């Protein structure tokens, strides 16, 4: 069975700092990869996704993620965070051609101080 | 545009009472539907998913059940709640193949006393 690891459970940054949240998965086949964000009091929403093509994916609000197949990773990045980026971030993986059932990581809580 | 509704938003129930949480989706047809439980620091635990009316798959054996009586309606139930059923329950939908990712509802906070 596939699994997803988000190694950073809690991250605290100051505004304008750079962000990188780790996501590693354990599945040797073709995968689809997702990052979701949950702002305080709001629904979980899709931040970005990778299915195929350019391994550097750009999402909403200046976020991007890079799929590195050799490292089984899909790390989320943002060059300069804002206070409004304070949220919980979840990485998810599905195996391409398989079920429609994503496996989620445990999430990373990001707090950005103004 | 598509919308997903969940109700109630919060619920406090005594141990041993029944449960019914409802989720409906608008603006799409034949979606995949999912029930998750979200616990702090533990991510999202998939409870049930459905690829069509009457088709339910259970991921975790437990005190809960799910039903899909209509294409865009997904219900989470229990005959007798346990204290351990307390939590935050999320409904989600996706298109087949997950091309657009999943879309989540606002959730129901269930407290079993």
Commentary on this structure:
Chain A has 114 residues and is mainly β. Chain A is 0% helix and 51% strand. Chain A contains no helices and twelve strands. In chain A, strands 2, 5, 6, 10, 11 and 12 form a six-stranded mixed β-sheet that branches. The N and C termini of chain A lie far apart (41 Å). The mean pLDDT of chain A is 92. With 113 residues, chain B is mainly beta. In chain B, strands 2, 4, 5, 6, 9, 10 and 11 form a seven-stranded mixed β-sheet that branches. Chain B has a four-stranded antiparallel β-sheet with strand order 1-3-8-7, with no helix packed on it. The mean pLDDT of chain B is 92. In chain B, a hairpin with a 3-residue loop joins strand 4 and strand 5. Chain B is 0% helix and 58% strand. Chain B is built from no helices and eleven strands. The interface between A and B is medium-sized, with 20 and 24 residues.
Describe the secondary structure blueprint for this structure:
The complex is a heterodimer of chains A (114) and B (113).
Chain A: E1 4-5, E2 10-14, E3 19-21, E4 24-25, E5 31-38, E6 44-50, E7 56-58, E8 64-68, E9 73-78, E10 87-95, E11 103-104, E12 108-113
Chain B: E1 3-7, E2 10-13, E3 19-26, E4 32-39, E5 43-52, E6 55-58, E7 65-70, E8 73-78, E9 87-94, E10 103-104, E11 108-112
DSSP E strands of chain B, number: 11
Which residue ranges of chain A are poorly predicted, with pLDDT under 50 across at least 5 consecutive positions?
Answer: none
Biggest sheet layout of chain A:
6 strands, mixed
Question: What is the mean pLDDT of chain A?
Answer: 92
- Molecular shape of chain B: globular
Largest interface: A-B, 20 and 24 residues
The proportion of strand residues of chain A reads: over 45%
Give the radius of gyration of chain A.
14 Å
Alpha-carbon distance between the termini of chain A? Answer: 41 Å
Q: If helices are DSSP runs of H or I spanning 4 or more residues, what is the number of helices of chain B?
A: 0
Q: Helical percent range of chain B?
A: under 10%
**Biggest sheet overview of chain B:** 7 strands, mixed
Helix and strand sequence of chain A: EEEEEEEEEEEE
Structural class, from helix and strand content of chain B? mainly beta
Task: Give the class of chain A from helix and strand content and strand pairing.
Answer: mainly beta
